[in-house]
Amino acid sequence: MARVRTLPAARRLNGGARVTLGAAAVADLLRRHEIRPRRSLGQHFVIDPNTVMRIVRLAGVTPDERIVEIGAGCGALTVALADAGVDLLAIEIDGRLVGALAEVCADRSVEVLQADATAVDSWAPRLEGGDVWKLVANLPYNIATPLLLDVLDGLPQITTMLVMVQDEVAERLAAKPGQRAYGLPSLKVACRARAEIRGRVPPTVFWPRPRVSSALLAIDRLPEPAADNVDDLYRLARQAFGQRRKMLRSSLRGVVSPGAFAAAAVDPAARPGDLGVADWSRLAAAVAGSATPQATADGAPGITS
Fold this sequence. Notes:
The protein is of the alpha/beta class. The protein is built from eleven helices and ten strands. The strands form two sheets. Strands 1-5-4-3-6-7-10-8 form an eight-stranded mixed β-sheet, with helices on both faces. A two-stranded antiparallel ribbon has the order 2-9. The longest helix has 12 residues, at 230-241. The termini are far apart.
């Protein structure tokens, strides 16, 4: 695991000088370091300074906040975050880019860590100590969903995230019950956080240009999980979503009895995508034999969304 600590920088705030990396600067950096993007790593470098500053603005970063950036790449977002005066940990798996990052981050307060971000245990210790962190990143398409779910599961010190991901991924993670994109990832996010799409990003802001559009996704961790039996409800939902077009009485046959459906106030004719966290929680509790059906907002039991 390689680590590069750059020098403390003068704070560049409130109209101070800012350095951004546009298309020409990124191309020159990659040429001098003899780097070509690797498809296997999902590398699409941001070459539009306006998009970078939009991410920083939407992330609401303030001086001295602790920020972790995953997939730092050429450093376009890294530089913008550092110049906002944050305490920045930039994680990059590609050793070829570590030298390039050290160059663009020179005289800035940035710690560059060469590590595989999907192996959360390899960088999680850097976040220990009781501090609150934000995740702000242009995430490689091929790791976005599992990485974000792992962060929600295992890194409670990361309380908010603003990430650029494939548009389809953002739709899936932010989807609500009843929406077409709603599925297991949506449910898992909803158990621990609120997710919202804050904007769309065209392929033209990247090099090489991807074939799909991207979106800016905000994820804010809830103070407490939305249910106290998250693991149990997720196991039950996973079985049902394996046959998502079937009614629950079919997909959960032999697992959930008619009595459990009744005790949980969940319609056995519903499909997995109709149920929210509270519904799955009640159903899992009923299966465990300890259901206490909850009422909807109008006081009557039923499926919540």
